[in-house]
Amino acid sequence: MTEPVLSFDDVRLSFAGVTALDGVSFTVNPGELFAVIGPNGAGKTSIFNVLSGVYRPERGSVRFEGTELIGRRPHAIARLGIGRTFQNIELFANLTVLDNLMLGRHHHHPYGVLAAFGWLGKARRSELANRLAVEEIIDFLELAQWRRFPVGLLPYGVQKRVELGRALAGEPKLLLLDEPVAGMNLEETEDMARFVLDIRDELGLPIVMVEHDMGLVMDLADRIMVVDFGRPIRTGTPPEVAADPEVIRAYLGAEHREAG
């Protein structure tokens, strides 16, 4: 059996007596697209913030390729090979698509400020290699026509694609997608779904995805975990999850919950 690339084991997280996660456990296998779903306020984003080192739980273990993540800072976790997109777009609106993607390569600049000013030797070779890597991402995500445009002038769906590209620019070994199609129209959603599948199938990247679009999740995910009030209520394949009475009850009651 292949060892999981990620193990999230019995994690508990609370804030001022309010429990955000209570005994959440799951694994992600190599090349797998693992989705986390649940009503608003169920704890989905808290899982991502634990994985990214933003939150430190009071109990549990999170291991990535055998390395414990709890206690590590976000930048150290990113260096281990975990890339992330955000629910709200976090790009530099005044910079071009190319420049935003180059910022995703910051872990791959093995030189200092003086070498950069001189534009010689290692700095020049590294910059050219990073530019080549970014150009490959531009081609992969079909961003060539916008490469010189400031991101703030682009359609919303293209901006979300640029953010995905910036996460890929860091050459992650695991990709966290936080609501990748939130706010998109049907055409933009279909484009993003295609790119997510290409990342899994062509690049071989395991993915953890939080998403509210149930149709998208059921079409794309290999396995799904459903959380409600910070607790996992079902983990399984899309057909198994869709038929589970507890999952149906959680979603039928979701409209009466407060957003969180």
Characterise the protein shown here.
The chain is an alpha/beta fold. The chain folds into two domains: 1-81 and 172-260, 3-Layer(aba) Sandwich (Rossmann fold), CATH 3.40.50.300; 92-171, no CATH class. It has ten helices and ten strands. The strands form two sheets. The protein has a six-stranded mixed sheet, with helices on both faces. The chain has a four-stranded antiparallel sheet with strand order 2-1-4-5, covered by helices on one side. α3 runs parallel beside α6. The longest helix is centred in the middle third of the chain and has 20 residues, at 121-140.
Concise overview:
With 260 residues, the chain is an alpha/beta fold.
Q: What is the total tally of β strands?
A: 10
Based on the structure given, which CATH architecture of the largest domain is correct?
A: 3-Layer(aba) Sandwich
Spatial ordering of strands, largest sheet: 6-7-8-3-9-10
- CATH structural fold name of the largest domain: Rossmann fold
Distance between the termini: 38 Å
CATH superfamily of the largest domain: P-loop containing nucleotide triphosphate hydrolases
Can you give the mean pLDDT?
88
Helix-strand blueprint:
Elements: E1 6-15, E2 18-28, E3 33-37, H1 44-51, E4 59-64, E5 67-68, H2 74-80, E6 82-84, H3 97-103, H4 113-118, H5 121-140, H6 156-169, E7 174-178, H7 186-201, E8 207-210, H8 214-220, E9 223-228, E10 231-236, H9 238-242, H10 245-252
Parallel strand pairs: 3-8, 3-9, 6-7, 7-8
Antiparallel strand pairs: 1-2, 1-4, 4-5, 9-10
Helix pairs in contact: 3-6
